[in-house]
Design a protein that fits this description.
heterotrimer; A: alpha+beta; Arc Repressor Mutant, subunit A; nine-stranded mixed sheet; about 40% helix; elongated; C: alpha/beta; Amidase signature (AS) enzymes; eleven-stranded mixed sheet; 11 strands; globular
Chain lengths: ~475, ~100, ~500
């Protein structure tokens, strides 16, 4: 069998996290009863007209600048015409002729080793379609336009991807960029990030691409990986059997783990694109683009480098924190307050993660005041509370958003600073444990730890262990 | 440009319109007439002329990203030929 | 009461303001006229008297409490049936929208209410404004009040005929390729196609989005100017709308001279196909303009002959996209014969649209389909550039242009539809103005030997309706064509 290489390009669709839809003032909020986030414009009533949401343009430019694109200063919208019940106007407003961003790239690890660039052909703005729900009872399809008109960016790569791993890393990189740039929350389970995958195979070293197939609307990393592996294997099998790969759109069924050809439409798809007459073109000035460039948030690569180089975090810990924007925000606030990146990271990857895990909470649903964690770490490191207490305080913070200092005060968790009080408590312990004292004195080291334990217990953990050790040593010598 | 029966059928399918045979003949010949007339544009040299989609150079008409109340669901569905709960209804879209 | 329909809108408003006539009486007079005449002329597609009476009462209360109610308070105005009126039938004279009641008002309707006019009655049109005769209406054809065997023109035939037949005081129409001006010309009334963008299109059910404009139809230029001043202006709901050059209505009404104005007549407007009587009347009008002090000269505009092909490509392309939303799912007609999803589309559309609409949709699909886009649609957009340029050059020399509205007077019923290409060619003088987005005022300038009205148009610079309205008023101060009315009415 010949060796084959995979040639893969992706069209990634991401919903932008603007407050309102792209062409009307309806909310983009996820959920809601069907057809309640809808007005006469996004439901395609006759006579209505679109007006562009300025934030969508800003976010598109931000995304383009974050992926090394050239911004098309004079760009415009076009209509893509097709009939389907989820598209109430029977056309989708999109950008074909002059997309807002062109010629960018994202860097990923090559499967062959080293880094490689996946080129971005273009990024364009468009509107999302509605949702069709099959109603088993009536055996009909229900149409919900709530998602209709939610702004989307379509990010189209060149066919520079040569493995399923590369594809996944590319989408992960894109997702990180989109989230860090603050333009999308990329919640795959809500469909706000999804990919169309184009795959073909060719013998290694060939210059000519094979026939490609397209799989639409894949919405998890696992599924993207699986789909590319499975589809390339299918194509290789066909070629090896002397059969032809047909250019077609296939549906990826992730539960069954294979793709199948979609019923070939009776009509050839002809989208009849033409310039959208209802929307004046966009003309983006240098100043506008520069002002967005200047205010770009720190992007994943830069942030990770800073965490590792300036803060001395490991690549692993950096990766864990950067996997979630709320964790990044909490981390940066905590570092700001504690000036102690390592402890901050340890707390976030330790206690915070544990609490999230225990309570099955997503980081974006954390409700406590961001300053609290830093305050707890400062109390601990300043010897004001014990490590055990710190954990207890954090639990209360996590669950009820209490004020750490007040909570410590109220629950009498503060450390004893009175040496004589500690001393008298330790003396009591020694009196009550004569046996252990004698054992220690006859050389049994373990008894010393036992006595520390008893003393800490008597002090209910509110004395610094170092102080207790010191006093114990004095008294026993 | 010559219009034949296949092209008319293709245009019907693009337009989601079905004509009977007589109508196809009539519409076909009328479209033929107008297209023949339209062909006169070929006389006109438009090399280097920019395609003008908008009459006036208006650009950058934007809306603020501020939420306004959506329409009541009853209004959205008021004209729907078929509805169920808060939805429009169509025959099932998947087999 | 019958006098009310003979009054001009401004005159009626004055009498209402002076409390000689009440707003409710005005509305009732229109209802009575409609009752008496509409079986004959078929101007209206629907008529909601109750809501108009309610609105008139509200306006009357404001007048009675001496509020500042504006220039046209209490004037009833008919609305072309492609302009959305909240909760009231808006059908585009098509079966496919036979029961459609929009959940919102067009911006122009909001503006009429705000200025205390009273919208009353939806008026007939060619289905989806596609036609020049008002014969393709699902409600049957409107008759020309000057001769009921003839068409009123179109597509705003119901609007123009209702003013001519004294069934309405004034009306709003829409003009995509001549649909206000040509019926005005055929019915002997005055109408303005404003600059593209001068009036918000929000709520106008689109035929061709880059060409459509709403405009007023009335008995004279002063009324047209007054109504235009109410409906114009930038609208945040229409991204293609703009503020136009402001004017004071008194400047229009007092304009009696054209001293210092330079007027161009495109000689190519008098080529093959123009009826001699029409040509003569327009040339006579040119003389009147001269007498009023204008300098008038002819100039060549060879691009004229390319206007029709360009128009039909652009208009049909946009129409096929705009009319795709009528699918039997969200509103309007849904075929009872559809079982599968595909049938819902095909049957609803095939049963819901008339032939002219189907034809234009198919033509639009053709010019946009892959393989033909560049040769047709893109070519047309380039010619549009050339047409715009030709007008810009003309306006470097002239303040406004004068030409006929249509090559002929009103056709016999059935004559246009039997030869569609010939009917399309009848739009030759009007479509160019839409392609270039210019304002144009149509007004009566004579009668042919069968006593049918002849119309001329004054074409202005973009966003400068003021100049042509002033010229129109000056012309009408010196002539009385606009004062004539059909004898049988």
């Amino acid at each position: 069998m010949a060796e084959y290489e995979i040639v893969c390009g992706l069209e990634v669709h991401t919903e932008l996290s603007t407050k309102t839809k792209i062409f009307c003032s309806c909310t983009t909020e996820f959920g809601g009863e069907p057809n309640t986030h809808v007005c006469e414009i996004c439901s395609g009533m006759p006579g209505t007209l679109p007006v562009v949401n300025e934030k969508v343009v800003e976010y598109a430019v931000r995304t383009g600048l974050s992926t090394n694109c050239t911004i098309t200063q004079n760009n415009k919208f076009d209509r893509k015409n097709y009939f389907y019940p989820d598209l109430p106007k029977a056309y989708q407003v999109s950008q074909l002729y002059l997309p807002i961003c062109q010629n960018g790239y994202v860097e990923i690890h090559s499967s062959k080793g080293g880094m490689k660039k996946v080129r971005i052909k273009e990024i364009h703005m468009e509107e999302d379609a509605g949702k069709l729900i099959h109603d088993a009872y009536s055996d009909c399809t229900l149409v919900d336009y709530n998602r209709c008109g939610v702004p989307l960016l379509e990010i189209v790569s060149e066919p520079d991807i040569s493995s399923a791993d590369e594809a996944v890393e590319y989408v992960e990189k894109l997702r990180d960029i989109l989230r860090f740039a603050g333009v999308s929350d990329c919640k795959m389970q809500e469909g706000s990030l999804r990919a169309d995958v184009n795959v073909s195979v060719m013998p290694v070293g060939s210059k000519e691409y094979g026939t490609r197939t397209e799989m639409k609307n894949i919405n998890s990393f696992k599924a993207i990986h699986h789909a590319i592996e499975s589809e390339s294997a299918r194509q290789i099998d066909l070629i090896e059997d002397g059969k032809e790969v047909k250019q077609e759109t296939r549906r990826w069924d992730d539960t069954k783990g294979y793709s199948y050809a979609m019923r070939s439409k009776e009509d050839a798809q002809d989208y009849k694109y033409f310039p959208e007459p209802d929307l004046p073109p966009l003309s983006l000035s240098d100043e506008y683009i520069e002002s967005i460039r200047k205010n770009l948030p720190e992007l994943p690569e830069a942030k990770k480098a800073r965490y590792m180089n300036d803060f001395g975090l490991s690549e692993y810990d950096t990766g864990l924190i950067c996997a979630s924007i709320p964790l990044v925000n909490l981390f940066e606030k905590t570092v700001e307050i504690t000036n102690n990146p390592k402890d901050s990271a340890n707390w976030i990857l330790g206690e915070v993660s544990k609490m999230l895990n225990d309570t099955q909470t997503q980081p974006e649903n954390m409700t406590f005041r961001a300053d609290s964690l830093g305050e707890i770490i400062n109390l601990l490191n300043g010897g004001k509370i014990s490590r055990d207490s710190a954990k207890k305080v954090f639990k209360a913070v996590f669950e009820e958003d209490v004020n750490p200092a007040e909570y410590v005060e109220k629950n009498n968790m503060g450390m004893m600073n009175d040496t004589s009080a500690i001393k008298s408590a330790v003396e009591e312990v020694l009196k009550a444990n004569e046996k252990a004292v004698n054992e220690y004195k006859s050389g049994k080291e373990a008894s010393f730890n036992y006595l520390i334990g008893q003393s800490m217990r008597a002090l209910r953990g509110k004395a610094p262990a170092s102080e207790v050790t010191k006093i114990l040593k004095e008294l026993l010598s | 440009m010559k219009i034949d029966g296949d092209l008319i059928k293709y245009l019907e399918s693009l337009a989601r319109i079905e004509l009977n045979e007589d109508e196809e003949k009539k519409v076909g010949s009328e479209i033929q007439d107008i297209l023949t007339y339209i062909d006169m544009l070929n006389e006109l040299n438009t090399d280097g002329v920019e395609a003008m989609s908008h009459s006036f150079p208006i650009t950058n008409v934007f809306r603020k990203d501020e939420v306004k109340p959506s329409a009541p669901n009853e209004d959205i569905l008021a004209n729907a030929p078929h509805k169920q709960d808060t939805c429009f209804v169509v025959p099932k879209t998947v087999e | 009461m019958s006098d009310i329909l003979n009054m001009k809108a401004l005159e009626l408003a004055q009498k209402i303001k002076a409390k000689e006539i009440s707003a409710v009486e005005a509305v009732e007079a229109v209802a009575a006229a409609k009752e008496a005449k509409d079986l004959k002329y078929n101007c209206y597609t629907s008529f909601n008297l109750e809501s108009a009476v309610e609105n008139a009462k509200t306006v009357q209360k404001k007048i009675d409490s001496n509020e500042d109610v504006g220039l046209l308070a209490g004037v009833p105005i008919a609305i072309k049936d492609n302009i959305c009126t909240k909760g009231e039938l808006t059908t585009c004279a098509s079966k496919i929208l036979y029961n459609f009641k929009p959940p919102y008002n067009a911006t122009v309707i909001e503006k009429l209410h705000k200025n205390n006019l009273v919208p009353l009655g939806k008026v007939n049109m060619d289905e989806f404004a596609m036609g020049s005769t008002t014969e393709t209406s699902a409600y049957g054809e409107t008759k020309n009040p000057w001769d009921v065997t003839k068409v009123p023109g179109g597509s705003s035939g119901g609007a123009a005929a209702s003013v001519a037949a004294r069934e309405s005081v004034a009306a709003l129409g829409s003009d995509t390729g001549g649909s206000i001006r040509q019926p005005c010309s055929f019915c002997g009334v005055t109408g303005l196609k404003p600059t593209y963008g001068a009036v918000s299109r929000y709520g106008l059910i689109a035929y061709a989005s880059s060409l459509d404009q709403i405009g007023p139809i009335a008995k004279d230029t002063a009324d047209v100017a007054a109504i235009f001043s109410v409906i114009c202006g930038k609208d945040e709901k229409d991204g293609t709308s703009m503020d136009t050059t402001p004017f004071d209505i008194s400047d229009i009404i007092s304009s009696k001279s054209l001293k210092g104005k330079k007027v161009g007549i495109p000689s190519d407007y008098f080529g093959e196909g123009i009826n001699e009587e029409v040509a003569k009347s327009v040339m006579n009008a040119a003389k009147v303009l001269k007498e009023l002090g204008a300098e008038v000269e002819e100039f060549a505009m060879p691009i004229v002959k390319y206007a029709i092909p360009t128009y039909y490509i652009i208009a049909c392309a946009e129409a096929c996209s705009n009319l795709s939303r009528f699918d039997g799912i969200k509103y309007g007609y849904s075929s009872p014969n559809a079982e599968m999803l595909r049938d819902v589309y095909i049957k609803s559309r095939s049963e819901g649209f008339g032939m002219e609409v189907k034809k234009r949709i198919m033509l639009g699909n053709f010019v946009l389909s892959s393989g033909y886009y560049d040769a047709y649609y893109n070519k047309a957009l380039k010619v549009k550039g050339l047409i715009s340029k030709a007008f810009s050059e003309a306006f470097e020399k002239y303040d406004f242009l004068l030409g006929p509205v249509a090559p002929t007077t009103a056709l016999k019923m059935g004559e246009g539809l039997s030869d569609p290409l010939q009917m399309y060619l009848g739009d030759i003088y009007t479509v160019m103005i839409n392609i270039a987005g210019l304002p144009s005022l149509a007004l009566p300038c004579g009668f042919d030997s069968s006593n049918m009205p002849i119309g001329m148009q004054l074409i202005g610079k973009p966003f400068n309706e003021k100049t042509i309205l002033e010229a129109g008023n000056a012309f009408q101060s010196a002539t009385d064509y606009h004062e004539k009315m059909p004898e049988t009415v």
